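Teaching assistant's notes for section 4

Start the section by putting this record on the projector. Ask students to predict, before seeing the second block, whether VIT family protein will look compact or extended. Collect guesses on the board.
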Amino acid sequence: MQLTKTKTKKSKQTMDEKLNSLRAGVLGSNDGILTVVGVLFSVAAATTNQFTIFIAGLSDLLACAFSMASGEYASVSTQKDTEKAVVEKEKRLLKTDFDNEIAAVKRHYMTLGVSEATSIEIAKDLLSKKPLETVVSVKYDMELGHYMNPWDAAFASLFSASAGGIFPLFAMTFAPASFQWPATIIAVSVAVALTGYLSAVLGKGNVKTAVIRNVIVGIITMFIHYYVGKLF
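Reveal the predicted structure now:
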């Protein structure tokens, strides 16, 4: 049987691929906000030297951004390798165990309420036209030729972590000295509320719960790091 070949040219991103990059961006932004404000509060509680505070915050922002990017790249690369391995496995099974592949497709349609006789006909028809696309879709809910792009996820995390960390960094280092603490608290609270909102929208979760949870975590983070800085 002639198996349908995977397209070699770059395909248009699927919705799942776009959402994966967006989720990576939201998570990266949230991490950037919290890690940078943590370092800023610890250092600012220990010293009033603005240059020292700024350099500490900037260094942490860069470290967080590149750490998030490399971690996301490694994670999505592993996922991509797994997806490719699955496709190669199904290619072999279509050659060596075709009857069980038909049975798998038949079972899929039967779980959707299609009769056994009709499910068999559908399975045979689909596997005679697009065998590899069909089994990959039915068994793994994957679209053949569309793999998560590790570079997209890495750059999304790099950019978003940097963008998130800018909120507390600018508030702490450029606000008037008498207002830098409340300015940073406000900036962080607004920023994590926004990432909470976006994560809830992307994940179709409860927006109010996500926003409140993120703000509480942000406040706890600032509180803990402030007192850690006071110890020195």
